[in-house]
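Minutes, project huddle
Topic: does the predicted pose make sense with iron/sulfur cluster bound?
PN asked that the exact inputs be recorded in the minutes so nobody has to dig through chat later. Recorded below.
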Amino acid sequence: MDEQTPKHVSESGMPVGARETDDAPVENQANEEEACARAPIGMLCELTHRCPLQCPYCSNPLDLERANTEMTTEQWQDLMRQAADLGVLQIHLSGGEPAARKDLEDIVKVAAEVGLYTNLITAAVTLTRERVEKLRDLGLDHVQISIQDVEPGNADKISGYKNGLEKKIEVAKWVKELGMPLTINAPIHRHNIKSVPKMIDFAVELGAGRIEIAHVQYYAWALLNRAALMPTREGFNEAAKYVEAARERLKGILVIDAVVPDYYAKYPKPCMGGWGRGIVNITPQGRVLPCHAAESIKGMEFDNIKDKKLAEIWLNGDAFNKYRGTSWMKEPCRSCDRKEVDYGGCRCQAFALTGDATNTDPACSLSSLHEEWANVAEKESHAPSTDFVYRRVGGAKKADTNPA
Amino acid sequence: MDESISKKRTVVTQESRVAFPPHIKLHRDAVRQQWLILAPERVFHPDEISVAVLKQCDGTRTVAEIAEKLTHEYQATIDVIQPDILDMLQDLADKGLVDA
Ligand code: SF4
Ligand code: SF4
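Predicted holo structure (tokens), as shared on screen:
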């Protein structure tokens, strides 16, 4: 880029929500600090853990929260008001399947009224045209539809759900007909990595403005299923090369966001843009987490929005302060000059793979455990795929929960 | 493969009447006291000059008209301002933030 021309509009390097791209620019650190100091900019709302699909890489916890423990409509609505007051800019209504809640409309209504930028993250299979239209009229800003593959049979197999793709296409068309912006989210793993070029064409044909080529991140269900999901390094490199070329070719037509599989990266991602910096995650029962996987770290306690205000939890909650900033770090992070770039990677992954959340994320090549884990990935990716452990209530119990 | 793509890249010229699509919002953040552009899964920080330009982008004024107007406000010549605005708006169009 020409350094002479002033850059008038810089992108925030902070992921606003579900997006965890490897390549989100850090263009303006000063702006970032200012924007994040007092308030999260994105709030991820897992409205429910119910979902008709059973993706084996689902980022929900292994211990899914039951329907009868979910927060009420009023509690979610109140949270929207608190979030706007605090300074949250975007909310992501996710799940599970957020449309499984009949009051999705009531929640969107309040969120839009208080000025939050609203994003629906859906598997789409249960949506009707009427509901999409109603949501639009209430002020929903953006719809993100996840796909399992563009090959129907394979999509069914991955999601454990029949004829899902057909339904998703139908809903995607409604979204476009109704004049709303659409993102396609495609979690990538060894059973669909070959479809990456077709997925990109698929997104263009549907009129999506964005696609997320999101290599599965190995937490929760994905960690349990790692040996069934990890792509080979060669496969990953090939897909990455294709994505790079497609990005150039589709400039101004389709934005392609890519998430690198950690195990093949040199440095880790700043998970959630850094612990307690920009994102807050709410579980169906109202627990307030710094990251959707945070509950996997044993021994941590999380506040509930039913007991305390969001501002209080964000600013002073123990869980948020525990790994906020850099003072909790050990070597090699402590003396590393990237510590305020990636914040030592993912705490949950550090805990899952090393048993200590204050360790450097083994995704980092500077971690003493990196090689060991990269080798595990390498080995698993070349061995025959294991069977999927599908995401369903109690599903993880039957499986061996120790991935190592 | 490109033939199958019906959607074309938007090219911003001095005749373009630029506007935000409904889902992109130029937002005054009261908590942080700054202007922001809210887009799907993204937030952008516009500087003072771009805010001045973007506030004019309502789909009725052409880029040339906006540039002309700003020459007075910023006491700069049109041949400095216009290319700068065009570059900026093209960049935003490529990111899907404005229509033209
Ligand atoms: S990843 Fe699959 S199973 Fe999990 S919430 Fe999304 S659609 Fe449902
Ligand atoms: S050592 Fe820590 S701070 Fe340095 S790159 Fe690795 S994870 Fe990031």
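Observations noted during the meeting:
- The first helix of chain B runs from residue 48 to 56.
- The mean pLDDT of chain B is 87.
No decisions taken; revisit at the next huddle.
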